[in-house]
Amino acid sequence: MFKILFFADSHLGFDFPIRPRVNRRRRGWDFFSNYELILDTAIEEGVDALVHGGDVFFRSKIPLAIIQKAYEPLLPVLESGIHLFFVPGNHERSRLPPSPLFHHKNFHLFDRPRCYTMEMEGIRVNWGGFPNIRHQAQKDFPGYLEQIGFPQQSDGLNILCVHQAIEDAVVGVQNYTFRKGSEVVSRDQFPAYLDLVLCGHIHRQQVLRSIHDTPLIYAGAIERTSFAERLETKGFYILECSPGKIDWEFRPLPARPMHLWTLPPNLLDKMKLVHAIQDQAACLPEDAIFRVRCSLEKQLEHLKISDLRNELPESMNIDLVPPSNHIRTSWSAYSN
Fold first, then answer.
1. Which pairs with CB-CB distance under 8 Å and at least 24 residues apart come from 324-327?
2. Which structural domain range is residue 21 located in?
3. pTM over 0.85
């Protein structure tokens, strides 16, 4: 039996400006804190493999300081003997920033469709994967699988690592469910020779099944990136694998609470608006991410986000948004 730690969608660099123009609490540290907690767990529990399912970073163009901060903690993991498998996601535009770490004997990058075969605890494991298919995923998915070259008759395990939307995956507070389409991989596209599929891209942790009953595991994001995820528990998976048996356990991570509140439409006086927001904030945890939605456009004319930050605890993130029927021309870091 060998052990895997699987996580995905770390979105490092989110709300982490190198030279911030406003002095306020930033959410970027939350993402790095959970990321480093996961790496520490991998070493402490002596896993054989650590898999990142894609979207290491929150966008494709990343400051060098963020890249270094993300890659430096990986070296102790590699030196401990743990094999690292990384899938480039759509936020990286299917290509991770290069690093000398990529040449380490224990680092394995799915920069193209490929298969790494090795023995883990006496078990032959074929690790296959490829970067995010950005367009026509359903059409191109079978061809990418073929390029990997999985052995279809094997006494070991075939594990596929991808970063795609899969049919029947569920997201958001309204439980939107992905259906078959050009950008969605169907559950019947996963061949019977696969024993396990580790998936990134969907931010809610969940386990689906292929038509051959293969587990299709989404670890979800390591922190909440939008208010659509405010009810979701974030974390990672620990898996124990052997031929004929795969067990998994979801491990929760710390995630700051998100609270969405709409101003009463009868409030138009600035002081009353501010006091109402203060009263609501007093009922929340001090580290909450607090989004205030205006009921009327006129309320926006009386409120400034800088004033609200001065009135609320420094440990709290405050976001002010217009009425839901308003078309925004600019968006905050926390907008859906």
1. 324/293, 326/297
2. 2-252
3. yes
Average pLDDT of span 154-161: 91
Going by their DSSP bridges, the two strands 170-171 and 176-177 should be labelled as antiparallel
Does residue 120 carry a pLDDT above 80?
A: yes
**Which residue's structure tokens are 């409120």?**
303
Residue 25 banded pLDDT, cuts 50, 70, 90: confident
> Could you tell me if 182 and 138 are in contact, meaning their C-beta atoms sit under 8 angstroms apart?
yes
Q: With respect to residue 272, please indicate whether it lies within any of the assigned structural domains.
A: yes
Rounded mean pLDDT of 290-295?
A: 96
**Which range (63-72, 134-143, 307-316) has the least confidence?**
307-316
Do 123 and 92 fall into the same domain?
yes
328 located within any domain: no
In a shared domain, residues 129 and 268: no
Evaluated on CA atoms 305, 254, 97, 64, the torsion sign reads positive
Residues 6+ apart with CB under 8 A from 315: 25, 286, 287
d(CA 300, CA 279): 18
284 plus 182 within the same structural domain:
no
